[in-house]
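User: Could you check the structure of this?
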Amino acid sequence: MTITQLKRKFLEDLGDNYPKEEILSFFNLLAAHILELSRLQMALEPNKKLSEAEINEFGQALEKLASFEPIQYIIGETEFFSLNFKVAPGVLIPRPETEELVQWILDEVSLQQKSSLKILDIGTGSGCIPISIKKHLPKAQISAIDISEEALEIANLNAEQNEVSVEFIQQDILSAEKLPQQFDIIVSNPPYVRELEKAEMHQNVLQYEPETALYVKDENPLLFYKKITKLAQEGLAKNGLLFFEINQYLGEETKAMVQDHGFDAKLRKDMFGNFRMLKAQKR
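Assistant: Sure, the predicted structure tokens are below.
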């Protein structure tokens, strides 16, 4: 079987589940992963014959995609902030919107012009936020907390892979009485999707991504934000900043809650025009 024939099979078998452009994107990612071929190389060698082992590997991936398994879990990695990150079932797949949160933090840091910063990421998952920040702020002291041992194992591997040093801590932030020290910046992308919003989620998210990293109860959707904001009252240094990725439907509610805890707060829209980020500073 050639590359062209295999690509045609992907388009035929997955056409009912995904748009054409997404299927082609899947195929290109798999070709890079399995064959170590770029899109240009594939275009130059469309009739390149594949080995039986290669065809079998593509076939297994095709079955998984037909069952809506995320391509990132299939190939075991994803790109975030121009860096490669390992991901696995049980660890939330980084989103493009979160890259915008990281960029906002870096922009604010450049304005402050502080030489050494202490930064904490709460609910780190794959470690994409602290590792990306550390890559751009090598002098910063960065710590990251997560409740999941599995997620922290992946995060540690990602730190090693990207050649940065981040202190990872296993802890349930909801049971924490205080933070380990004061920080100049606290950032968190905690669970914020309400149960009632599950109907809006794609099958690949519903079936495969970790529920504990995504969902909160409808009756208390700001659970994590309230706890982290309360901890930040004492855990932020003077002029320290608090950054959240937030539920687009609860922007004003989140902002009001943060303000009620003694912070000035500002919302920001993401690339899709949704209020997805919040920055706060203690009054």
